[in-house]
Write a sequence for this structure.
């Protein structure tokens, strides 16, 4: 692999990164992910099988996954992103998109928690029209 020309290696990395990016969007609840920078548009390639593992130790999981903790963490992240936008002055469309997506995820978590305590069914994923709010990145990239 190391004997390949740098241009070829860069192209391969771009294809892999773009394939992961598009796959993540397609598999996302809201067809949007928290990624400020869109990778270079490239030909999609088949990705190797993925694997999963527990990143958070079992003893910490219960506390971290509590809905109120998740809501507080999401609100804190949104606050930090907004502060970054304020400090930068000139802000990329990608950061603006991430702020909106964080706000959507916060609203979804809060609405799900409210439905739970009221004994109602949780909100459906189409309760918030994310493509209407942030556009459809895949479509913008020239795909369907």
């Amino acid at each position: 692999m190391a004997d390949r020309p740098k241009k070829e290696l860069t192209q391969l990395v771009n294809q892999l990164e773009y394939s992961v990016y598009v796959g993540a969007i397609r598999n996302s609840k809201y067809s949007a992910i928290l990624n400020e920078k869109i990778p270079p548009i490239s030909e999609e390639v088949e990705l190797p099988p993925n694997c999963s593992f527990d990143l958070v130790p079992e003893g910490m999981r219960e506390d971290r996954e509590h809905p109120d903790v998740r809501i507080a963490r999401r609100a804190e992240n949104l606050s930090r992103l907004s502060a970054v936008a304020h400090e930068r002055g000139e802000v990329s469309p990608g950061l603006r998109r991430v702020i909106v997506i964080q706000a959507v995820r916060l609203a979804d978590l809060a609405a799900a928690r409210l439905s739970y305590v009221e004994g109602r069914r949780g909100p459906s994923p189409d309760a918030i029209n994310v493509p209407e709010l942030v556009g459809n990145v895949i479509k913008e990239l020239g795909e369907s």
Notes: The radius of gyration is 18 Å.
